[in-house]
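Changelog-adjacent note: as of this version, every example in the card shows the full chain rather than a window. The one below runs 199 residues end to end.
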Amino acid sequence: MATTFDNKQLFGGAVVANLPKSYADVSNIREVPDHQEIYLDASGFSSIIVEINERVSQPSTDEEALKFHFQDIVDDQDASRIWHTDVAHLSHFPPSTPCYTLLATTTPPSPTEGNVQRALTPDFTAVILTLIRLVPQSTDIMVTINIPHIPGHQETSDGAVSFDEGKFGSLVQEGMRIRDELWRTLEVRDWGLFGGGEE
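Full-length structure tokens:
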């Protein structure tokens, strides 16, 4: 079934984007930091996080900043691997805006036998991260799509998922479609959100 989208207002309407209709606003059930918007798939385990951070200046290149942000969100105990990085193209940002994306996986430590959490521990989580660097506003916007692969909860029609062979499975492919829709529709309506002028 094809994913359908709704246009959502983020950060009080300062930012808008199309998000899947099946994703629910986490702030309706628990407190979310002011610099984040978090949406959770009501029929699965995937999530979308839109996050506004101060622009990091320590890495010397934008690609290194992308990897810096990724490492910052990864649990220290998880093994991680970046499979692909590329330039991103977002429709509502000037072409000169540095935008980058990566596809990565994180793998948690194996749970102890008999642990009640074992059944919900993912084999791995695919991470689709987009970084938008707003230089005049000294801001980095991160859009992260997290896609846990939990045994017994993934479509059996996927067959073997092998990132080495480019076989990402239907869950990651759907995450890429969601990413593409975000690239097409994510738009800043109020640049005052960043405390500066317009881009």
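Structural remarks: Residues 58 and 64 are 9 Å apart (CA to CA).
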